[in-house]
Amino acid sequence: MSRIRRLFVGGLRGNEQLTAVAAVLLLVLLFVEGMTLLNLGALLTVHVFVGLLLIPVVALKLGSTGWRMLRYYLGAREYVERGPPRLFLRALVAPILILSTTVLFGTGTAILALGQTEGALVALHKASFILWFGAAGVHVLAHAWRLPALLRHVTPGRGLRVALATGAVVSGLVLATIALPAVDRLQDAVSAHVGVDSE
């Protein structure tokens, strides 16, 4: 039993590695998402598809960081010894990042579900992106330098962490694929709206 337990438990190191794996996936996917903003009218389908793909990966990252916070405040020894993140990141950046991420993906999903191309919901989506971009930029600058070391470190439970990350990506792909008809309708509505405006 202890041998099986070692395969699935990595403690603080394992948690940090899972967070790092999720962070790398997010950086890659967010780069692709960012590139769609260069021509959103033509690339809206890709923008929404990648946005939906991101949701389970974001959930994985929030889950792993939330677990660390929970273990720290419950007094788990290795988490307490490592200490909390810097006060600026913990008290200001993290709350803004979590709130803006929730609003950004929530409004994006609502826009898709309702088929909206303009209005208050679209404006809120854009505003939350600006807030999110600033907080995410600070967050990445504060943590990115640690990623290579965290990814290289051999920690028990690596197989489970790979499975969780793979599951998040596969879940995102399934979600995005199921939503493709709605994505196509939204793209058509945007294309028609641009066509009317250009006449």
The average pLDDT score comes to 90
Number of strands: 0
Overall shape: it is: globular
Q: Span from first to last CA?
A: 71 Å
Structural class by SSE content: mainly alpha
Number of helices: 9
Give the radius of gyration. 19 Å
Tell me the fraction of residues in β-strands, as a range: under 5%
The parts where pLDDT drops under 50 for at least 5 residues are 1-8
- What fraction, in percent, of the residue positions are helical? over 70%
- Mind describing the biggest β-sheet? none
SSE order: HHHHHHHHH
Task: Pick out its properties.
single chain; 199 residues; mainly alpha; 9 helices; 86% helix; disordered N terminus
Q: What would you say this structure looks like, in words?
A:
It is a single chain. The model is unreliable at 1-8 (pLDDT under 50). The radius of gyration is 19 Å and the shape is globular. The protein has helices spanning 2-8, 11-36, 40-73, 77-82, 87-114, 120-143, 147-152, 158-178, 180-198. It is an all-alpha fold and 199 residues long. α3 (40-73) packs across α5 (87-114).
